[in-house]
Amino acid sequence: MHIVKQLMAIPGVIAAGEFAYRGDRFSFEGALTAEYARMASILCRSNTMSVNMQSEIFDSFAANCGCKPMQGWIVRGAQASVCNVGNYFAFIENRPDLLNDVMTIMRAKVGDVGDDLLVNLYAKIGGDVKEALY
Amino acid sequence: MTLEQMMDLPGALAAFSYTDKGDITGHQIREGTEITPQILDLLAHSCVANIAVATLEARGWESLTGQKGFEPLQGFSMVGLEWSVVVSDHCGVILKNRDVNYEASFNAVQTCSA
């Protein structure tokens, strides 16, 4: 089953989606409008790039410290949270055990994110366009 | 909860506390890990920045969409290849991914008294 559909089958998952490269290519399911999903995709892509940059800094001081490449991030709100793994995101309610379940599924289904994040994200929309990135 | 108690969380590799500016005020590191005080110092500064950015995003999102439930922010987590760091306003804990319990960790850092 597709990751987004699998996530949406879990009670308490508000919305889930997938984004690529610039954050403006996306697909989603759940309680978001297309415009809000576009905004969420840009936000998630931006945060993903930011924590990836931070992991590069940590790694430069302690190679193989276990942080790089960054796999994702979580924003824990008062009643809701945002989970991001690779190029997938999920908006969830703060129900008991839901965060752990969602993160377990996302990590298992998305798999380990490779070293080159931009290429990884760009590959999601197809084509060998590596030269266009640099 | 103290830093010593946070080190009892499953998979805990390090626990630390920090100021509003990200300066470390206390830390515990499990022996034999690759985590160093310098890494904790960098992490603490990035945590302050990430929580500030996440607060901006949560506030903007709630205002723009009308969807509530994010503010006040409870914490932020970065998921690395082998470990995750879970932080709140002034405390953080680093945990092995294979053992991590994110919910218990967020609850722990929120009640941190270090």
How would you sum up this structure in a few lines?
The complex is a heterodimer of chains A (134) and B (114). Chain A is an alpha+beta fold and 134 residues long.
Describe this structure in words.
- The complex is a heterodimer of chains A (134) and B (114).
- With 134 residues, chain A is an alpha+beta fold.
- Chain A has one domain: 2-Layer Sandwich (Beta-Lactamase).
- Chain A is built from 4 helices and 5 strands.
- Chain A has a 5-stranded antiparallel beta sheet, sandwiched between helices.
- The longest helix of chain A is centred in the middle third of the chain and has 28 residues, at 34-61.
- In chain B, 37% of the residues lie in helices and 25% in strands.
- Chain B has helices at 3-6, 37-65, 102-110; strands at residues 12-18, 24-29, 75-79, 83-87, 91-96.
- Chain B is globular, with a radius of gyration of 14 Å.
- The termini of chain B are close together.
- The mean pLDDT of chain B is 95.
